[in-house]
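Sequence and structure are kept together here, with a separate record for every protein. An example record follows, reproduced without changes.
>
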Amino acid sequence: MDWPERLLIAAVRRMPAKRREWGEAMLAELASVRLLQERWLFAAGCAGTALEETMISAMRRVRGVALISLIWAPLWAVMFGVFLLVLERLLGPSNEPSFVFMMLTIGQVGLVTGALFGVLLALGENGKAVEQLSLMRVALWGALSATVFPVMTGRANQVFWTCTFGAIVAVAMVAVARRAALSRLSRSPGLLRACALLPVSDTVNPR
C-alpha cells in the first residue's frame, strides 16, 4: 500500500455512507493506475471531491442548528408571554420588569437553548431520516438543552418551566418536520411544515 492509496482510503472513510460505493469504485480504479505521478493525481482528485462533500455536509449541519436557534427564540418569547398573561390573570399584576422586556429576555434564552438543542439533536440522532425520529428522545434532548442556561446562570429554581418549554417546542417542531417529510412524497408539504423540515433535516442528516 503506497501513500496515494492511503490518502484515498482516508478520504473514503470520511465520506457519507451513501457515497461509499463511489469511493470503493475509485479505490478499485486506482489499483489499475501504475505510474506514481498518475496515482497521486488520481488520489488527490478523488480526495478533493470527498473533502468537498464533507465540507458541504458540515455547513448544512451548521445551517440547521442556526435555523433551529432562530426559530426557537420567537417561540419561547410567545410561549412565555402567554404564560405571564395567565399568571397575571390568576395572581394579579406583579412588580417584575415590563412585559416586553421579559419577552425579549426569554427570546434570548430560547436562542441559546435552540442552539444547544440543535447540537444535541445532531449528536444523538446523527444520520437518521426525519420521519424516523422518536418524539420521546426529541423531548429528552429539548429538556436537557433547556437545563443548561438556568443552571449556568444560577437560576436552578427555573429549571422546571424551562425544561417544559424545551420539551414542548422540540416535540412540536420535530412533529411538524416529520409530517412534512411524510407528506412531501405525495404532495408539497406547505410553507410552515417546510420551515420545520429544512433545519431538522439539515441537523440530523445533512447529506
